Please model this.
Amino acid sequence: MAELPSQAQFASIGQGYSTDEGNSLSLKADAYTQAEWFVADQQAILARTWQWVCHVEKVREPGSFTTMDIAGHPIAVVRDRESQLRAFYNVCKHRAHELLSGEGNTTRIMCPYHAWVYKLDGQLVRAPETEHLENFVPKEICLDQVQVEEFAGFVFVNLDPNAISLRAQSGNLETEIRHWAPDIENLTFGKRLTYDIKSNWKNVVDNFLECYHCPTAHKDFCDLVDMDTYKVTTYDIYSSHMAEAGKGANSAYDVSNATVRTHAVWWLWPTTCLMRYPGRSSMIVLNVIPIGPDRTLETYDFFLETPEPDAMELDAMRYLDEVLQVEDISLVESVQRGMNTPAFTQGRIVNDPSGSGKSEHAVHHFHGLVLDAYRAAAE
Ligand code: FES
Ligand SMILES: [Fe+2]
Model:
């Protein structure tokens, strides 16, 4: 396994960054390209922060479960018989085979390797052919639990047993989300789009956090929303990105019949993006999934009023998939290639003190959180 950066590397990674966003350079390119910094990201960021799992509807019923990978670790989220939500390392205590796969509903957790059986609370209840073993007490064996939290209609997990709850860390975020999307718990899954991107996850997040590139790179988007109303505000571990819908008939998709007229977007440190586009009530969750120093997966899950998208939503999905994502993926893959050359170390943060969309203050905010996490890891 690749190693963490050296103390000297930790000492130099923050050079050029200033807490004054008007007078700061960006995070250094090494953090985006070098294997040891990817290890740092996994250990110091992804394994210590709240990671989005699913909408609560997926694990509403007792016995329902879903599985995912967090920072390279297989994790399962399960609603137990008493309706308590639980999360475990999805790893058998016998010889480490993965237990559950995919998603579904089950009455117990049976390992597919040698059929050890666990209750939904993680307690081992049966291990075949072990009756004669000395000093082997099944009820002393339990799956390793992971912190899990229901937050604003979604489920999050955190691999850090000492992490403070997401609700306590995130200030007004839940209040804000519920203000704009009061029906969030009742929205239902409509569609998933997935992307495999040849770029570091932080380039994907950087690009998400500023609309300074929108006038050059997203002509249709600047027609969809009124850029003069675009406002970006940073808080402790999240930022909000708000704009009013632009022209009804525009080159992105027609929003003449939209009941939701505000483009409301939140980024939650480090990898969760929530988006409410003009249209019906909806929430799109962009989950940024770091895979390697120069590879990132993205899932876009559309939660809608009905499982079937309406015509406007179909058009919005087409625009997002065939236009906006094509534009953004091209940008972040180009940036990754540029960062891999000796011609780039870091660049100037472009800050608009009025907090408009055409400013990189939310990128700067993100880089500050990354550097805080690196500093904590170095200690
Ligand atoms: S590894 Fe699970 S029962 Fe053997
Ligand atoms: Fe973009």
